[in-house]
Design goal:
Order of helices and strands: HEEEEHEEEH
CATH architecture of the largest domain: Alpha-Beta Complex
Distance between the termini: 86 Å
Low-confidence stretches: 25-68
Strand content: 25-35%
CATH superfamily of the largest domain: Nucleoside Triphosphate Pyrophosphohydrolase
Largest sheet: 7 strands, mixed
Number of helices: 3
CATH class of the largest domain: Alpha Beta
CATH topology of the largest domain: Nucleoside Triphosphate Pyrophosphohydrolase
Mean pLDDT: 74
């Protein structure tokens, strides 16, 4: 016969099992979003998406991103009078000295839309008017992976000036080939040259 266990030991074992089950269920909910009323929206994958697509408002903690540990970057292709605004990265920054489309990394719980508006104001001191979603590019650098979300925008208020970048220029689409961009931008550059 097995010796009888005291009530205290039985109670502790029951509590331990209950905590393990609760912990497992909580972890599953946190990782997959199970139990929520709506499924998290997918990031935009089509050029037909516009500024108001669910993917544009997707928070960083949404697990539907194909690269959950990548850095999400919102970028603006600002057009005025047939020209596109590009900025040059400061030498001390990652990929320093290269040209790029203005924008930046989003912070935790920030949507792509809020990120883009904040970054453009911080970099150029202007308010932008969104028009349409252009392209999403996933690219792996040796030190990190990035997911770039490009949106075509127009100026809404203010005159651009270089606040957080080395300099900026207005260029026509066919002139983009004269500037050195990060390799992750290549697909978008081809798209812009084709429509410009």
């Amino acid at each position: 016969m097995k010796p009888k266990q005291s009530r205290g030991i039985k109670g502790l074992r029951s509590l331990s099992r209950a905590l393990k089950i609760a912990s497992s269920a909580f972890g599953r909910l946190a990782m997959t979003g199970e139990g929520s009323r709506r499924r998290p929206p997918r990031p935009p994958t089509s050029r037909r998406c516009d500024w108001t697509t669910p993917g544009f408002g997707r928070a960083r903690n949404d697990t539907s991103c194909p690269f959950p540990f990548s850095v999400d970057v919102a970028c603006a292709v600002i057009r005025e009078g047939g020209k596109i605004l590009i900025t040059r990265r400061r030498e001390k920054d990652h990929l320093g000295g290269l040209w790029e489309f203005p924008g930046g990394k989003r912070v935790a719980a920030e949507s792509l839309g809020a990120c883009l508006e904040r970054e453009i104001f911080e970099e150029l001191g202007v308010r932008i008017r969104p028009k349409r979603f252009l392209q999403c590019i996933h690219y792996r650098y040796p030190e990190k992976r990035v997911s770039l979300y490009f949106y075509e925008c127009g100026l809404l208020e203010g005159t651009p000036f270089a606040r957080a970048s080395l300099e900026f220029r207005w260029v026509r689409p066919f002139e983009l080939r004269n500037y050195s961009f990060p390799p992750a931008d290549e697909a978008l550059l081809n798209l812009l040259r084709g429509v410009g």
